[in-house]
Amino acid sequence: GFSTAAAITSVSGRGVGMDVVRTNIDQIGGTIDIKSVAGEGSSVTIKIPLTLAIVSALIVEAAGDRFAIPQLSVVELVRARANSEHRIERIKDTAVLRLRNKLLPLIHLKKLLKIDDGAASDPENGFIVVTQVGSQTFGIVVDGVFHTEEIVVKPMSTKLRHIDMFSGNTILGDGAVIMIIDPNGIAKALGAAGSSAHDMGDEAAGHHIGSGEQTTSLLVFRAGSSQPKAVPLGLVTRLEELPADKIEFSNGRYMVQYREQLMPLVAMEGVTIASQGAQPILVFADDGRSMGLVVDEIIDIVEERLNIEVGGSSSGILGSAVIKGQATEVIDVGHFLPMAFADWFTRKEMKPSMHSQSVLLVDDSAFFRNMLAPVLKAAGYRIRTAPTAQEGLAALRAQNFDVILTDIEMPDMNGFEFAEVIRSDNNLAATPIIGLSALVSPAAIERGRQAGFHDYVAKFDRPGLIAALKEQTAGAAGASELSRAAA
């Protein structure tokens, strides 16, 4: 047994066995290491894989259910009491909080979500989460506040993205699945105040469109040199540190037994595969296949505006960008995937058939065109790219496409204007349009709907993009089948 008690007995350490702990850690792709030094003690290191964004969140309760509010939007917590300086008042039919001689609009979370545990709400007392969205500040009234916690953000299903109140979901340490509150959606629901927030969101979206500003989650690492390298986090399936003794050499290449399959390993230039200790690996997976990119060190995950200023001069590098104040090489994932499987993008089952759907991808960024085109080809779509909205319109008038994918933040003619032009053309109006943007806010989604978008997907949400494409092309495929049957 294993025990941390100061004084041990014959029954110490008879709780959950360490083998059970290791089994559960292994099941989620983590590792557990124990190091002992005689006369000093033992250290236990548990590493859990990071596959999505991690944010700090405040866990609150409403009507018996728990919810997470991103701490980035939380200004402070206030306990409102009837006889204190922080008290809930009403102006007409709107609840407000008097806080430091200012009135903040309030909204009860359980009323907003239309959930009721049968308990009567106290109109004058409660816990208030003071939240800021842009320049607007308001309060969310909750039944209880638990603690802050680092959570792994799971994206919303495409079927639920129209719900403004939630931005995702997460699994807590006790196994409970809870929803993540979107403060922008709460602001929108505040009625008149929400309309102001919505207008500010539109203004912010317009600013981003005009300036081209967009942030991306990037995984920063080192490989082959001291210069940092980066890859969009959304492309990485898992981060692993595999024991060096598990790496095998067969048929002239390195590989590892990974999740009951052989996974080939590809080392970046200048990287030597470790012979002892742990080897950091970036795992990329698609359609049942996985490959591991061997690197020297995983440094950090950052949110940064990705602007490739210098084009790549060597294979496997898209170019260089300034990330956290340092010149960083952005790698071309599409270069390394065929090094693991030569037919990664040309597998027989993925070759476009005579009836496969055609997709027009319009994006002014060569980086995103080069990144998305191979992914969509691998999913079985015929892809044509255009660097500007004008060239996209020319392509649409020259041939028929089943779906249009368009970036939002483009110069000259942005994605919203591009969609409006398409909708005004009788020959093109029926073609589904999916918007791609790093700025996925309720205000931007609503503006996309008004412009004529059928769906709105984050640029690095690869599963969400494929799901949206399948949904939009299903109708077109069915119509084609009916046409062929009638013929």
UniProtKB/TrEMBL annotation:
Keywords attached to this entry: Kinase, Phosphoprotein, Transferase
Domain CheW-like: 54-192
Residue positions, PTM 4-aspartylphosphate: 407
PANTHER family linked: CHEMOTAXIS PROTEIN CHEA, SENSOR HISTIDINE KINASE CHEA
Signal peptide span: none
Catalytic activities: ATP + protein L-histidine = ADP + protein N-phospho-L-histidine
A molecular function (GO) term: protein histidine kinase activity
Name under which the protein is recorded: histidine kinase
Response regulatory domain span: 358-474
E.C. designation(s): 2.7.13.3
Organism: Bradyrhizobium forestalis
Upper lineage: Bacteria, Pseudomonadati, Pseudomonadota, Alphaproteobacteria, Hyphomicrobiales
GO biological process, one term: chemotaxis
InterPro entries referenced in this protein's UniProt entry, alphabetically: Bact_Chemotaxis_CheA, CheW-like_dom_sf, CheW-lke_dom, CheY-like_superfamily, HATPase_C_sf, HATPase_dom, Sig_transdc_His_kin-like_C, Sig_transdc_resp-reg_receiver
SMART domains: CheW, REC
Enzyme class: transferase
